[in-house]
Amino acid sequence: MRSPALRHVLTHLITPLLMCLGMGLAYMGAFVTPEPNHLPVAVVGAGPRAKVFAQTVKDAAGDKLDVRTVATRAAAVDLLKSRDVTGAYVPSTKEPELLVATAASDMGATAVEKVFTPVAAKEGVPLKVTDVAAPVADDPTGQGLFFLLIALSIGSYASVAALGAAGATLPMRIRTLLALGVSTVVSGIGALLAGPVFHLAHHGLASLWGMAWLYSAGILFIGVGLHTFLKRWTTLTMMVLFVMLNFTSSGGLFRPELQNGFFGTLHAFWNGAGFVEGVRSLLYFGDDGLARNVWTLVVWLLVGLAVTAIAATYERARVSRQAAALAERAPSAEPARQKAEAAVDEQAEAEVEAEVEEAVGV
Q1: Are 223 and 238 in contact (CB under 8 A)?
Q2: Rounded CA gap, 299 and 293, in Å?
Q3: Cα torsion at 58, 39, 289, 204 (round to 10°)?
Q4: What percent of the chain lies above the pLDDT cut of 90?
Q5: Bridge-partner residues for 43, per DSSP?
Q6: Helix 271-284 to helix 205-230 angle, to the nearest 10 degrees?
Q7: Residue 173: its pLDDT value, please?
Q8: Which of 9, 190, 279, 355 gives 20 to 30 Å between its CA and that of 101?
Q9: Rounded CA separation 267/261 (Å)
């Protein structure tokens, strides 16, 4: 290509076009056609009649539902509050009842209601729906936590672009301290939004802030470490990891039982799911499952710290190699090291301008 300017533009178009493709595949693949996929439900009853009814429902639904029976209504409520089932049907010829927990998933509650409403209609009676774990009035659909996740994610991965590009010439220890500071600010903004501003969290705000910090710090350290190796491709990589795969598998809109197996599998260990499900446990389900989700966030943070440590070691080794190469042609080792460091700085500054253009645009 003869025109350097045209080549420069076309090179910078690669990232947004790949983002377009990736976002389309991820979001449309995860959200466009939500269908029950082994959605766990329960039928209340201990006798043969209840078991036959449960099997009839299972046979009609196929792989869409996983149906079990429980002896009592109280046992069904416990399963809902531990999020082991999405809905529980209490058969009755006079007033059949469907138990749901919309705080776990508003979409899941809607899905089981669609399943059992026709069942009650066959008996010629209306279905009574009881919500045993409703979200707060300030977040009636329970989806506010998903949008909080988006805010935290954008603040974190966008800051990686700034730390990586504008801070590329800074020592790794300084970038590490900046990452700690940014994660504190981002999580503080998240706690402010969840508490005083939009009242998503009526209690446990300090614990919510702690999980937000773990989540944000994990993203930042992974990004700062990866930037050493990926340079201008870091932004695209962060988008793939913490937007395309993260938002779609978080369970903030659709829990894994309403998605295909790919996103359902990611939900088991991805950091966005750890945050959303952890905050749900904290706010609505008496801390049930909270420890597991916190450990998910801790593991992601440890991965970030490991990546950053590897990057710091690599950068030190690179400077040493360049210093050794110059030392062979220089009378003094110290001037050689200074020249090597200057060469590294010049190369980094040359990369910064192009990277900033792309990262800021995205």
Answers
A1: yes
A2: 10
A3: -130
A4: 60
A5: 69, 89
A6: 180
A7: 92
A8: 190
A9: 10
pLDDT over 50 (residue 89): yes
Distance CA 190, CA 148 (A): 7
Q: In 10 A of CB 313, how many CB atoms?
A: 12
* CB distance 106 to 146 below 8 Å: no
Closest CA to 284 of 157, 142, 172: 142
Instruction: Check if the beta carbon of residue 343 is closer than 8 Å to that of residue 322.
Output: yes
The chain-wide mean pLDDT, for the chain, equals 88
First to last CA, the chain: 25
Tokens of 120: 């009650």
- pLDDT class of 357 with cuts at 50, 70, 90: very low
Residue showing tokens 């966005």: 272
Residue closest to 142 by CA, chosen among 109, 183, 175: 109
Output the six-digit token pair for 128.
């009574």
Average pLDDT over residues 250-274: 92
* Claim: this prediction has a pTM higher than 0.70: yes
Contact 150, 250 (CB under 8 A): no
Lowest-pLDDT range of 137-151, 195-209, 272-286, 348-362: 348-362
Q: What is the mean pLDDT of residues 40-66?
A: 90
